[in-house]
Specification:
3 domains; alpha/beta; three-stranded antiparallel sheet; binds zinc ion; Arc Repressor Mutant, subunit A; three-stranded parallel sheet; 12% strand; Rossmann fold; single chain
């Protein structure tokens, strides 16, 4: 049977025979958290859920790396924030004065949407962990075994570390920076570290005070042991040969006597082909996603391909293709539509199963996204009218075909309204100009060539005489009218768009005409007010 990669990871982990699995994720709070670096959280959650599915105990934890130094001022903060460069995020104030700290300001948007994605995790703060003593034991072990750690690091370094190097970075008492200090001595009896800072300060600090942190690769290994981590997804930068994971794995095993977790490296997500960058303001957040698509669709985006496969996200026109695909997969999962092939059908169902947020949920009422971009622009924010347009154009799948607007359950109505608002937001924020239109309330002042006028008149007669229930039938008969006037289709359609929209382009003509009020179209094509 075909398995999803998430299922394979869970199956592998089951073989570990541990009492409880802990899936760790971590995010550096160096600015806005985006869909690229929050993959950690999505993957960890999915693995945790799958482990429960197969009868294992599991917990997902999320560690906010909020004790690391600020290296670049994140977008959209003013340049004046460069005075905080080198200071731990945990000591920097909220840029807008809306929260208690810089950290809270940037982690809140992620924490706020966890429920929408059905993500359950225990959130921890690196800063708090240093302050409350969680790391104390690991710090002491690391400082005692410094010679071994130095040796491990040196295996991967071109230039060996200094003989007095310590795996610890104190926060300077004087200037508040952590990336400018060098620890050079450890007094075991007093738990004290002596350090020098680039600012000229020479000081001592107590390792239990929280005013400093372990070097990253040692810290990573330490937290695996502290929390009993058995699996952790992380960006591919940590996965390079001789990179963070390789080194932390050895430290975990040799220094802390702890089996390193099952690694799940993942590839970055690009935005319109560019690397996401918090400092450049190139990013797309899960919150932004929820403005234009359901939570399941972001899950689908992440889980439809293997984690190391490159993913590019484009919120503009390509998003409609993406949503077409998501809609298809969802409909196949709920047996509303057939898959292109049996093999694809199995694949679709498997991916949707992983992307689905509440298993066992009923088919959501989500008429095709792309079609709604047209229906919404015709009907405006009027769900009943939009429903009528959708129905008239045979865009309802089999479970809804026979239904009227009034038959929708409260849940279906909610889902419908949510989709309409997604479409509205997409049109406003990302929809390119050529998909936008507005039905003109009055006949536009323009002159059409006679043959185009005659075509419109005949088309009006056709619409008046015959009842059309499908866009295909109307499309075919429209071509007959075009032919009878010897008109090129393009010229005929342009006449329609000009008369109704006051522009040369528009959505697919037959479906567009069917979506409008019949009396209105007939009159307009005859140029009657
Ligand atoms: Zn704030
Ligand atoms: Zn200093």
């Amino acid at each position: 049977m075909m398995k999803h990669w998430i299922e394979r990871i869970a199956d592998d982990l089951k073989q570990w025979n541990v009492e409880k699995h802990v899936i760790a994720s971590g995010t550096s709070i160096s600015g806005s958290i985006h869909i690229g670096n929050s993959c950690d959280v999505f993957i960890a959650n999915a693995v945790g859920k799958q482990l429960k599915e197969i009868g294992e105990k599991s917990e997902t934890i999320w560690i906010a790396d909020d004790h690391d130094p600020l290296r670049k001022v994140p977008h959209p903060l003013p340049e004046s924030y460069d005075k905080y460069l080198g200071m731990p995020y945990s000591n920097i104030p909220c840029p807008d004065g809306c929260c208690d700290s810089f950290v809270e300001h940037f982690e809140k948007p992620l924490l706020d949407v966890l429920d929408d994605f059905g993500i359950e995790l225990t959130a921890k703060s690196g800063f708090e962990m240093y302050r409350d003593g969680t790391y104390d034991e690991s710090i002491k072990i690391s400082l005692k075994k410094v010679a071994e750690i130095r040796k491990i690091f040196n295996q991967y370094r071109e230039h060996p570390l200094a003989d007095d190097w310590l795996p610890y970075n104190p926060i300077c008492d004087e200037c508040g920076r952590v990336n400018t200090t060098t620890a050079y001595d450890y007094n075991e009896n007093r738990d004290e570290i002596s350090y020098k800072c680039e600012c000229g300060h020479d000081g001592t600090m107590n390792i239990t005070s929280g005013n400093g942190k372990l070097t990253w690769r040692v810290e990573w290994a330490a937290r695996w042991k502290i929390f009993g981590v058995t699996c952790e997804p992380f960006g591919k930068d940590h996965a390079a040969s001789g990179g963070s994971y390789d080194v932390s794995k050895i430290i975990s095993e040799e220094i802390f006597d702890y089996k390193a977790p099952y690694p799940v490296p993942y590839e970055w997500i690009t935005l319109n082909g560019d690397a996401m960058s918090k400092s450049q303001g190139v990013f797309f957040s899960p919150q932004q996603w929820l403005e234009i698509g359901p939570a399941e669709s972001l899950n689908y985006f992440i889980f439809r391909s293997k984690p190391m496969k490159h993913k590019d996200f484009t919120p503009n026109m390509a998003f409609l293709d993406f949503m077409d695909q998501f809609d298809k997969v969802e409909k196949v999962f709920f047996s509303e539509e057939d898959a292109p092939s049996q093999k694809e059908g199995k694949k679709f169902k498997k991916i949707y199963e992983i992307a689905q947020i509440h298993s066992g949920e009923a088919l959501p009422f989500r008429p095709p996204y792309r079609f709604l971009t047209v229906a919404y622009q015709i009907a405006g924010n009027n769900p009943e009218k939009i429903f009528e347009i959708v129905k008239k154009n045979s865009q309802l799948t089999k479970s809804f075909e026979e239904k009227e607007f009034g038959d929708l359950t409260e849940k279906e109505l909610d889902e419908f309204n949510q989709r309409i608002s997604h479409v509205k937001n997409w049109l406003e924020k990302y929809g390119p100009k050529f998909v936008k239109f507005q039905v003109m309330k009055k006949i536009p002042r323009l002159e059409l060539p006679d043959e185009q006028k005659a075509f419109l008149k005949d088309l009006a007669n056709l619409l008046e005489e015959k009842e059309f229930n499908s866009a295909e039938t109307l499309h075919d008969e429209m071509y007959e009218v075009l032919n009878s006037h010897g008109l090129k289709p393009q010229k005929g359609f342009q006449a329609i768009y000009k008369m109704i929209l006051g522009q040369k382009q528009g959505p697919k003509a037959a479906s567009f005409i069917l979506s409008l009020d019949k009396d209105f179209v007939v009159k307009r094509l005859r140029m009657e007010e």
